[in-house]
Amino acid sequence: MIPDKAPQENVFHCSEDLKKESHIPSFEKYKELYIRSIENPDEFWGAIAKDFFWKTKHTGQFLDYNFDVTKGEIFIKFMEGATTNICYNLLDRNVHERKLGDNIAFFWLVECSAKRYGRKTGRDMRVLYLMISITIDYFWFKEGNEPGDDLTVTYKELLQKVCRFANVLKSQGVKKGDRVSIYMPMVVELVVAMLACARIGAVHSIVFAGFSAESLCERIIDSKCSLLITADGFYRGDKLINLKLLADEALQKCRDKGFPLKKCIMLKHLSKEPEAAGRQSPPAKRACPDLEVPWNPDVDLCWHTLMSGAADECEPEWCESEDPLFILYTSGSTGKPKCNAASCCRLLMVSSLQGVLHTVSGYLLYVAATFKLVFDHQPGDVYWCTADIGWITGHSYITYGPLANGATSVLFEGLPTYPDVGRMWQIVDKYQVTKFYTAPTAIRLLMKYGSDPVQKYKRKSLKVLGTVGEPINPEAWQWYHGVVGEKRCPIVDTFWQTETGGHVLTPLPAATPMKPGSATFPFFGVVPAILNESGEELEGPSEGYLVFKQPWPGVMRSVFGNHERFEATYFKKFPGYYVTGDGCRRDKDGYYWITGRIDDMLNVSGHLLSTAEVESALVEHKSVVEAAVVSRPHAVKGESLYCFVTLNDGVAYSQALEAELRKQVREKIGAIATPDYIQNAPGLPKTRSGKIMRRVLRKIACNEKDLGDISTLADSSVVDELFRNRCATTARV
Ligand code: 6R9
């Protein structure tokens, strides 16, 4: 499957210098280790496990599993019988055993204020803002919000903070196995909160701070959390987000639904006095007159008051390998009945969350190994991942992977294009960043501004560049490689999912010749296959469903509270395989190319949304009878949302209604899901059995007249009508 020799034509190689210091310096070495990882996983993962601390050794096999639904329940067990603590391995081990206590874990900085830099005016800034809030909402980093709002946190300091907060959680009655929701901006305290949970064996469920109150409420209820950790507010660009207000709204919704949460710990991020901040993320140096911090004395507790009374030491809870570590929600869809005034009890697609569950030992080893080898981590590196911790990329490659390696990272709370589009490279120079990891959507956005803002900065420190979240188009790859990396830095195009825990298809920087747009080959322990519609494995060059034949340590273990759903979503379609939901092509050299989602998911700026979830939010509006959402390609975001809505009889379509619908989707799901196009659709193309023909709607959205076979269409006149009334204008941006 993996060729013996790497191809030499039409590929990019890394520099000889990089090869010299690399962990895996050649393709031959990669292949040799890959074969060992598949043929003898015990030995392969056993060698990696030696770097970590185990309170007790494992007793069974390294990896035990069933991937075949026809043979019984799906399970994955890794290092059964071993006990450890992931927080101990990230912090205590680095401080006490590896003597890295004074090394910097994070350079934190917040985005620069427009005031200091001189605000841009007019359309330029508006476009930038909209682009920012829509496309890269979640790409912000942990520098502070004003120049000078920065902070370094050493491993020793992080350990102390985490122990204190772990004691705080214990004092509030949080125990091993309890779920804790975290709804915070990119502050150091977010890392502290998640690791404090891990230290006491509690299960964190981080909800991205860009999500709405409704989304937070759904996640709190689904995971049956006992406590919420949040912050007063934060700035996104110049926009103040009153986070506590949203958190309170979510808690009220929880109460209304019969799930009252007893406690909410709030960090004063914007409202704290500078002198009280001490060595915590500094407050913004600007006034926040509009900050609203509602306070409910029955529920709310102040982070700072609790921390000041907490002890510096906290014995970790020793966890079993397969104890839960965290839940992270992705969107899915199920049919659920709903009534409204216009039509009673229709069956409607209602979003149903999937709490992806990861467990302790396998996740630790997998994120540690992928971080070390994919970014070729070396002492002295300064690493920067621009994702938000609220997504899996932040979990695995800001918190767990880098800290497991004792790495130094940049954590930036600002926006990468604010106050200007050179911001990323300014930070790269400031901290001499060596390894840089971002999303294709951010690259495409920056590309629009040309090479000048990049070339204003030196970027000499950069060695490896990475991408994640969606396929990177070859043009964006070439720009990233040529302009940003000056043809000197290999690009690791890492394909993976919330469910896979870490990279599963990826180049290794010094070993894999790169092809622009290909995620290349499997990581160690990962066995991909391409299946056709009948579930047959295709050999050689081919295209079909991307599946995996056996587990690797970091794969999800279940859907929280719903193992049946786990089996149905990932294992039912093709028994014996984990089904990714992505399409894939393998070329003559054995390289894998992801072609995109093949289910009803959309990838907007690297973030997966289910079309059903957006449809559900639209149909909840009293004027809407039916909605169908499809994807339309977008130059920056990858995909955008094109929504067709059918209104109740007698309701007229208007701009005001359109604005209401947009608002409704934002409130139900979050800004990332804001519809780009909404079209009034008095009729939708349906089959005779009543199924909406989304394939036809996608063509209408893109104005492609060649509809293919539409013989099953019940009434073709609706198609002409929809073509006539297409949203011809560009997206709302
Ligand atoms: C890590 C993350 C997962 C989906 C995945 C695929 C797409 C991610 C990609 C990529 C092509 C890459 N995806 N990385 N497609 N090339 N390098 O993004 O997790 O939010 O769960 O999304 O993202 O479609 O199935 P998640």
TrEMBL record:
Key words, A-Z: ATP-binding, Ligase, Lipid metabolism, Nucleotide-binding
Family according to the record: Belongs to the ATP-dependent AMP-binding enzyme family.
Domain called Acetyl-coenzyme A synthetase N-terminal: residue spans: 30-89
PANTHER family documented for this protein: ACETYL-COENZYME A SYNTHETASE (PTHR24095), ACETYL-COENZYME A SYNTHETASE, CYTOPLASMIC (PTHR24095:SF126)
Entry EC number(s): 6.2.1.1
Name used for this protein in its record: Acetyl-coenzyme A synthetase
InterPro entries in alphabetical order: Ac_CoA_lig, ACAS_N, AMP-bd_C, AMP-bd_C_sf, AMP-binding_CS, AMP-dep_synth/lig_dom, ANL_N_sf
GO terms assigned for molecular function: acetate-CoA ligase activity; AMP binding; ATP binding; propionate-CoA ligase activity
Gene3D superfamilies: 3.30.300.30, N-terminal domain of ligase-like
Domain called AMP-dependent synthetase/ligase: residue spans: 149-557
Top-level taxon: Eukaryota
Segments forming domain AMP-binding enzyme C-terminal: 613-691
Cellular component GO terms held in the UniProt record: cytoplasm
Organism this protein belongs to: Gambusia affinis (Western mosquitofish)
Catalysed reaction equations from the record: propanoate + ATP + CoA = propanoyl-CoA + AMP + diphosphate; acetate + ATP + CoA = acetyl-CoA + AMP + diphosphate
